[in-house]
Every structure is written in C-alpha cells, then in structure tokens.
Design goal:
- With 71 residues, the chain is an alpha+beta fold.
- The protein is built from two helices and three strands.
- It is elongated and about 55 Å long.
Length: 71
C-alpha cells in the first residue's frame, strides 16, 4: 500500500514509541488555583510572596485550593 511504500511501518513506529524515554512530569498548581495567591484586580494578576504573577504562573510552594465542587 501507499503508506508502506513511503517508509511508514506501524510496527517500527510502535517499537520506537515503546522504547522512548518517559518525561519526569510533575503536576503543578497554577497561581489562579493556589491557596497562597490572591487576585489583584488593580494589577490584573495574582499576588503571592511579594510578587505579582499571571494566573498561569506556578511555583514549588503551590497548593491547590479546595474547589466549590469538592465541598
């Protein structure tokens, strides 16, 4: 078939994916979800540890605040 003629072999791809190293990913807590940050409407960002951050920033001290749904 056309796919095999172009050099794409599913078995080779599957083997390569299975042998690939994994990423040591960590779950992070963004400022917008953290118990330590507070939203500052004047700055338009979150305030934590004396610094202003966007809601997508994260740090090592992040702790997820309890959501309304989990109460």
């Amino acid at each position: 078939d056309l796919v095999s003629k172009r050099g794409f072999y599913p078995a080779i791809v599957k083997s390569a994916v299975e042998k690939a190293p994994t990423v040591p990913a960590e779950i992070v807590c963004r400022c917008k979800d953290c118990v330590h940050s507070q939203y500052d409407a004047l700055l338009g960002g979150y305030w934590c540890n004396g610094k202003s951050h966007s809601g997508l920033w994260f740090c090592a001290d992040g702790e997820r605040r309890e959501s309304e749904e989990s109460k």
